[in-house]
Structures are given as structure tokens and as C-alpha cells.
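Researcher: I'm comparing several assemblies side by side, and this is the next one on my list. It has 494 residues spread over two chains. Same procedure as the others: predict the full complex and return the structure.
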Amino acid sequence: MAKILLVEDDDLVRDMLAQVLTRASHEVHSATNGDEASEYLQTTEPDIMVTDIIMPKKSGITLISEVRDKHPNMEIIAISGGGRLDPTGYLDLSESLGATVSFEKPIDNAALLMAIDLLAHGKQEEPT
Amino acid sequence: MSPDQFNEKRHWLTTWSPYLAAFAVAAAAVILWYGFVDGITPAYVITSAKEGLPWIILILGISVAVLLGLSLRLTQLTRERKKSLELISEQFKKEISTRVHSEETKQKLEKALLQGQKLQAIGTLAGGIAHDFNNILYAIIGYAGIVREDVQKDSMAYQNLGKVLDAAKRGQELISRILTFSRRQHHEFEPICLEETIEGVLGLMTPTIPASVTINFTADTQAKKIVIEGNQTQLHQVLVNIINNSVDAMDGEGTINIKLSHVPDHDPLLAQFPEIQPGLYCRIDITDTGHGMDQATMARIFEPFYTTKEVGKGTGLGLATAHSIIKEHRGETVVESQLGHGTTFTLLLPEHSEKEENSHGKDSVS
């Protein structure tokens, strides 16, 4: 089980992903944009942050660049449908800023869960 | 001689010629007259006439010579003027032709620009809709997956949810095609032998094409060596889309002729595209024996989502994508068609040169 911060502005996608992650026995906290996520991260450090890239107020790119140094042990998964532009551009950028892995929407949820398991497993094996 | 100088001389000649002639005649008359007044007798007249005859002949001769000279000069001036006028007329014709050509070029550019903007606008709109629709589809797929986990695998609900997922995935594929059209993706370009590319596509497509459709591919000896700078996958997509369109246009029966050739320098086909970059070009002509198109259909054939096929049989993206890819390859697509007489798609592509290889780089598209 991993402690996951889910950042997604689309209600339908956020609620669906939250259900998928919860059903896979992960502890999920949801945020609707980068600002909410930053606020949450001031008091809590999840194992993994799953964040959308294009969001109102604070984008996923800004969020990743802000939290990467403050939370070096937190794994970051970037997800994006790319808005009106090529998503691979944003996803490449998010990885260069510190995201561990990225997915293009629509995501294969089984692949997302597998990635989370691998990252969570890796964290458990890390020497403390 | 300038037109003004010419007019001045002509005016002088036409004004004074009659006076000179009259003077010559008057001089002869005066000589004769004096003869009659002074020596009234016919003998005297004859004598005087005999004495004055050489003078009369001389004066008349001089007058005739002067008049002849003036006339010849006038003819010469007229010829010069005619030549000068012909030259001016030729210059005018050239000027008019240049202006007409420039106006035609301007109109073509405006039309191309308008068409380009229209396609770009549709692409942007489609891209926006596709992204939002992708999120919706993702939610449908996700929730259907969650519910499916909760129902018995042998139940009707489980099977029906499977169909929901299948339908959503079909929608996802369609969106993916729309995004491919609207996004300006980065593609690696490399030198490609067109003959091999076409043969490769035909090899792949043959099993999927009805046996009643014959495809002939020809490339003369020179054309076999044609190499372009392009993306193999994208060119495959172009050829597959156009050939599929031809097969559909023939209702599954007929002949498709594919010809690869060089485009000669100064070919009128290239002149249709004033904005095309200079250099060597090759052409792929894909001709079918299908039902052809009318002018109205031809004008919209490359618009995204424009299709004449039955609902569910075509997305209207195949030819739009092909056109867009050829543009990315700095080429042009020409379509010629007549109702009942088939259609020819001509793809014009710039040929690869070693010079280009050095300067162009590997990555091509912005």
C-alpha cells in the first residue's frame, strides 16, 4: 500500500482514478490543482504524487519543479492528455524536471497500477 | 529617333513638300511666260522655248529629285516609326502579360493561404475537441472497468460492460487519428528510396485489397533511383490512405495505376504552386478507374471530416492526413477527376540531394 497524492482538475477523471487507486489498497488524497497540492505537501509527504499537467491556477509542470527539491524521496507520476498541444512534449518536460514516469491519457489503468506498485516496492526496499 | 523628333520631321515634310512642288512648277511657268510676253511671235516662242528648255528640264529634274528624296526619306521615317511602335507594342504586351501573371500568382497564393488557414483552423478545433473528448472517454473506460470488477464474469452485465469498453476504445482510436492530424509531431526524416517504399506498401496492402482490383506499378529506369528526404511511416500512411480511397471509389472493382517519375524542369505542374521551393521534384501518380468526383467534391477533398462515404465507412481524415503529410515533406498534392472517368492523385515531392543532406539536418518538421 502506498500513500498517494492525486492531483487532477477534471472531476470525472479524478474521482475515477481515486476509486481505482483506493480499490488497489492505496491511501489516496485528492487535490484539484497545483495550489491545493502544494498546500497539502507543506504538512504531509506522500510516497507518490500522481499529477495531471495542464490545470488551472498552478500547472503540473510548476508543481513538479517546486516540490522536486523539497521532497526528494517522493516519486512523481505525470499524466497528460496534452491540452491543445503534443502531450509528449509536456511529459518529456515533466520527466526532465523530476517526474519518475509519465503516462499519456487515456491511460491503461493496469499499467498505472503496475508502475505505482513498482515505485512503492522500490521505496520499501530503500535503506532508511 | 524619339517619337517627338519623328513627328517634327514628318510635319515639316508634309507641310513644305507641296510648296516646293508648286515653286518648281511656278518657276517653269514664269520662264515660259516671259517668253510669251517679250517675243510674241511663235518663232520667238519656239526659239525661247528651245533656249529655256534645258533650264526647264533642269529645274523640273531638280524638283522631281528633291521630291523623290523627300518621299524616300518620309518612307524611311515611316518605317522607323513603325518599328518603334511595334517595339512599344511588344513592351506593352509583355507588361500586360507580366501583370496578368502576377495577378494570377497573387490569386493562387491567396487561395492557398486561405485553404491553409482553413485546414489549420479545423485542425486546431479538432485537436481541442479531441483532447476534451479523450478525458471523457478515459472516465468512461475507467468507470466501466471499475464496475466490471464488481460483477460476475459469466453475467450479461460483465459482457455488456465489455462492449462499452470496446466502443470506448474505438472512440479512443478515432480520437488518436484526429490528434495525429491536428498535432504537429516531430518526425525523423531520412533519405528514402521511393520505389522501395511504394513496393513495400503494395506488398502490405495486397492481402487486404479485393482480387477484383488490379494494381499496376511502373517506374522507368531513371525513376528507380529517386530518393527523397522523408519519413517512411508517414509516406506509408499517405499511400495507404490514397490507395484505400481509390479502392472505395471503384466499389471494389477496377484498376489502379501507380507511376513514379521525375518532374522535368519548368513543368507547368510546378508552376501551379508559386510558393513551392526551387529544385528537383518527382511525382507519384495514382490513377483509378472509379466513379470520379465533381468540382464541388474536389474543392473539399482535403478538408478534415469531409467524406462522401456512407456514415460509419469513412472518417474524412484519410486524404486530409495525406495532404498534411505531403505538405510536411515540402510537397504538393494535385487531384484531377471527372465524374464517371476516375481520379488521379499526383504527389509532388522534392528530391533528395547530397547538398540538402549537409544543410537540412536530420530532423525536419516543426
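Model: For your comparison table: Strands of chain B lie at 190-193, 213-219, 227-230, 254-263, 281-288, 332-337, 343-350.
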